[in-house]
Every structure is written in C-alpha cells, then in structure tokens.
Amino acid sequence: MPANNKKKILVVDDEKDVREFLKAALWEAGFDVVEADDGNIAIEKIKNEIPDLISLDLVMPKKSGAKLYRELSKNKKWSKIPVIIVTGHARDDLGKADLKELTMSGPGIYLEKPVKPHNYI
C-alpha cells in the first residue's frame, strides 16, 4: 500500500505496553500509527493532523477517554472522527458509567482488554 494512501490511526492509551501492542497490530495490517499516552497529548496530535480513526482507552490520568471524547464531540471537524473504545474497565467502577454513556451517545463500539489482534483490526 503506498504511504500516501495509508489510513492514520491515533492510539490513545496510558499503558505503554498496550500502546505498543496495538501499534504493532495496526502497523502489520498496513496502517500508519500515531500514539498518545493521555487525552491532552491526543488533542495536540489531532490539532497537528486529524486521524482517520481513534483507538481510545477509557480510563487514563490527566484527561480520560470519556473527557477526550466529549471534547471531540464539541468540535465540528473532530466529531466526525470514528472512535473505538478499548478498555479494561468495562465492568468495574472505574469505567462502567463512562462506557455506558459513550456506548449510548457516542461511538457505541468497544473492545475489552486484553485485545486480540484479529478482533481489533
């Protein structure tokens, strides 16, 4: 696939090993990958170049995935970026409420960690 036709995916996760795993899976599938370890850094990356899709962790320090998604929703250009939630907190108190909100009003698509590459790509 020519470099200029590759889709760019922004992987936002505070866990470095998870980011590296997701990045490798996406890269192997032919995507360009940009990383951010929290929502604030993700916003800066999005300001520089709007990705084709965002893979978003739900629970992170500084700016959570839920807060980042709400911020994206308020911006006309950013609100069109497809988002998939990747979380290890779908069933616990840290993420259950935010996940319910986002699946009802937001992207509606989520994967629970640990993610298998064939489910992610």
Helix/strand order: EHEHEHEHEH
Estimate the helix proportion, in percent: 25-40%
Report mean pLDDT, rounded to a whole number. Answer: 82
* N-C termini distance: 16 Å
What would you call the quaternary organization? single chain
Helix-strand category: alpha/beta
Please state how the strands of the largest beta sheet are arranged side by side: 2-1-3-4-5
Spans of at least 5 consecutive residues with low confidence: none
Could you characterize what this model shows?
This protein is of the alpha/beta class and 121 residues long. Helices cover 38% and strands 18% of the residues. It contains five helices and five strands. The chain has helices at 16-28, 39-48, 65-73, 96-105, 117-120, and strands at residues 8-12, 32-36, 53-56, 83-87, 110-112. Strands 2-1-3-4-5 form a five-stranded parallel sheet, with helices on both faces.
Write a brief caption for the model.
By secondary structure, the protein is of the alpha/beta class. It has helices spanning 16-28, 39-48, 65-73, 96-105, 117-120; strands at residues 8-12, 32-36, 53-56, 83-87, 110-112. It has a five-stranded parallel sheet with strand order 2-1-3-4-5, with helices on both faces.
